[in-house]
Amino acid sequence: MNKQRFPDEFRLKPGDRVGLIACSNGLSPDRQGEIQALVSLLREWGLEPVCSPCLYAREGGAFSGSGKERAQALLDFYRDDAILGIFDLSGGDLANQVLPFLDYGVLARHPKPFFGYSDLTALLNGIYAQTGLPGGLYQIRNLLGRREKPSAGPSSGASLTVRETCWTSPFPFCRETPWRALWQEETSAAF
Q1: DSSP strand E in the chain: where?
Q2: 122 vs 21, 31, 91, 114, 132, CA distance in Å?
Q3: DSSP code at position 4
Q4: What are the C-alpha distances in Å from 94 to residues 25, 141, 158, 161, 184?
Q5: Mean per-residue pLDDT for 9-15?
């Protein structure tokens, strides 16, 4: 396995497409307003969000699809070269069901930042272990607490930047894992 690196700074700029998915517990359908607010905020910032069909829980359960369906939706985002970053909106205890269905060769051939939170660390660590691709432990829904548009200077849209950080586990079975944090360019403060 070769460790792959993204540039020291990965910057989303106006016009960039980003994927939104739920690889763990599907979001409750009553949260559609919240997710629409997030989509609207990302559009205000000049980004083009693309929602996965595996986003909301189906039929009152916790699943937004089978493990295989959620893996396929994630792989579709990786295969789509127009998608420059993937943000998982979920968390919970179902992400590990996706792991057996991932084609790590596809991920390695189409590297892009993947961000998740909670049990998405299972995917982040699995992807890193199999491909060397770094990921990010971040919940993009946190942006909803930040409704004002960051200052972007004379250009239109907001500048979201990812800077690499490194986390080393105190446990011998975990390797050093590069994590990425989402930062606001203008203040260099974490969201």
Answers
A1: 9-12, 17-21, 48-51, 83-88, 114-116, 135-137, 160-167, 177-184, 189-190
A2: 15, 24, 11, 12, 14
A3: P
A4: 6, 19, 33, 29, 31
A5: 78
- Which pLDDT score is estimated for 137? 86
Spatial CA neighbour of 17 closest among 36, 43, 55, 40: 43
Task: Please give the model's pTM, rounded to 2 decimal places.
Answer: 0.76
Contacts by 7-11 with C-beta closer than 8 Å and gap 24+? 8/163, 8/164, 9/161, 9/162, 9/163, 10/85, 10/113, 10/161, 10/162, 10/180, 11/159, 11/160, 11/161, 11/162, 11/185
Mean pLDDT of 54-63: 86
